[in-house]
Amino acid sequence: MKKLVELEILGLSSNHSQSGSFTLVMGEVEGLRRLPIVIGMFEAQAIAIEIEKIIPNRPMTHDLFKSFSDSFQFEIEKIVISEMKEGVFYAKIHSKSESAMVEIDSRPSDAIAIAVRFGAAIFCSEKVLSEAGIEFSEEDKKEEDKKPSKSVASKGAASKENSLKDFSLDKLNTLLDKAILDEDYEKAARIRDELNKRN
Description:
Elements (H helix, E strand, L loop, with lengths): L3 E11 L6 E8 L4 E8 H11 L9 H11 L3 E11 L2 E9 L4 E6 L1 H11 L2 E5 H7 L1 E2 L2 H9 L10 H6 L6 H13 L3 H14 L1
Parallel strand pairs: 4-7
Antiparallel strand pairs: 1-2, 1-7, 2-3, 3-8, 4-5, 5-6
């Protein structure tokens, strides 16, 4: 049995080196290591809207998975980021019903989007975390704690709207696209107004 380390979601930010992608930062629950994972825009949106408890007009793919599993009475016990090969992460979704326990292969981004919907624990193998994790010192941790949190989970919608002036143009454009996609036109208008102020 591989040694597993529990992780929590610390933040989600746009990736400046790869257009259209985001960096999901996971942190060791009982330690100082961080695991950054580059994910796509759709998966980032799926994770963010669940953490923020935003209800889309129509169910997204991961919501559909949740409804499907509820209907057939199986639950997600945990997800495990199990391997890394040539810089690509692999994950397993551990599900169970009354009659069976099943491991399903998954991309980590999809597994995490599903985990947040089920309230399931997120784990990483010690091997992956030691190879791909970034070690924080106690001083780094104290500095990070002093800064305002950038965690998606820690920002409510109201505080996000109040701090539109703090976002970069790229981030505002991403938020605008997301608001339009979600048909949240009131939010889109506020973002558009902030963009117009800067032009």
